[in-house]
């Protein structure tokens, strides 16, 4: 079974191509299952379109769901389409987001931390003249936020759990017990983590989580899924087979997809 649960499209303002382009690319790539998971709106903000270029407008969300559902019907029999979102995790707005996601018909919700301390984690200015102490502090804070996102119980999948190193690769080599603590919480909360192959679109390269963190995740029994995080149709399912092989090497025998927010295992 070939699948990709993490994909975007033009509505978020920083991806190229319409939903249909991703469906066609997925069929060309031989996928059995394609999950849509565009950036959900900033529900807690007053403005309809809080950050154009980052996530879709609130008023655009119903159109996203309707178009995705129509494509699911149109392509039935050729590819199975799942409808999800990639949601920001804002600890202060957990109640609001949870209510919204429970009130709509989604297959899954990916929870990701893109903003910490009010700044985008990929913002290069964040890392200018950063001391080793600062990097350690930031890394530990990020791990704690990811652990909180798992504890919230509102997400089916956690997105790119070490993306903090995306544009600051040296963060990856900083040792801290916070990483194991985070993985233990994720395992206990029974939340699935994605292997996200979009590291190559940032300075760090490779995949999230980085190799040693992925091995520790296996050690703690963290469940796994796959997402390319494609923002262009050409990246759909990127490295799917390599990820599958790597996961088998480190002991995984199954991975997971979601339908109607129910988890289903697939053999690796
Ligand atoms: Zn994006
Ligand atoms: Zn993301």
Beta-strand percent range: 15-25%
> Remind me, CATH topology?
TIM Barrel
CATH architecture: Alpha-Beta Barrel
Largest sheet: 7 strands, parallel
- The rounded Rg comes to 17 Å
Principal-axis shape equals globular
Quote the distance from N terminus to C terminus: 8 Å
Q: Mean of the pLDDT scores?
A: 97
Low confidence ranges: none
Structure ligands: zinc ion
Q: Helix-strand pattern, N to C? A: EHEHEHEEEHEHEHEHEE
CATH superfamily: Metal-dependent hydrolases
User: What number of structural domains do the residues give?
Assistant: 1
* Number of helices, counting only DSSP H or I runs of 4 residues or more: 7
Structural class: alpha/beta
**Helical coverage, percent range:** 25-40%
Class, according to the CATH hierarchy? Answer: Alpha Beta
Strand order of the largest sheet: 1-2-3-4-7-8-9
Keywords: Amino-acid biosynthesis, Histidine biosynthesis, Hydrolase
Enzyme class: hydrolase
Organism: Streptomyces spongiae
InterPro entries: Histidinol_P_phosphatase_HisJ, PHP_dom, Pol/His_phosphatase_N, Pol/histidinol_Pase-like
